Amino acid sequence: MDNQKKCLFEKFGGDQQVSELIDQFYYKVLFDKLLREKFLKADMSRVRYQQKRFFAQMMGDSNTQYTGRDLIEVHKNLNINNQQFDKFKTHLKNIAKDMEIPSDDIDELLLHVEKHRNLIVFQK
């Protein structure tokens, strides 16, 4: 398959790699003083499951349908600020780098994530 035709999900290596990315990500988040308080009351296995589905769909996997709650619904009472959103992106970027994902693909992922900022950040 020509690399131009592959969606980001495939470029990242499919299901297993995206799963790994999200697992590593939440491992980091739960040790991050800036972010972990947002997840103290969360069912983390559910959060990870929904996030994997969301990322797979966002990254172009046509076989995955995100069926979780609306992003605004989920985040509006969490008081997430821009600094926390940026930190979230930094963790994602660093983990993807550690996984040796090409930087163009990481940039594309971060662009997708950035498009959702206004559905997640409510603490201006």
From TrEMBL:
Top-level taxon: Eukaryota
Keywords of this entry: Heme, Iron, Metal-binding, Transport
InterPro entries linked: GlbO/GLB3-like, Hemoglobin_trunc
One Pfam family recorded for the sequence: Bac_globin
GO molecular function, one term: metal ion binding
PANTHER family: CHROMOSOME UNDETERMINED SCAFFOLD_37, WHOLE GENOME SHOTGUN SEQUENCE, TWO-ON-TWO HEMOGLOBIN-3
Protein name per the record: Group 1 truncated hemoglobin
Source organism: Paramecium sonneborni
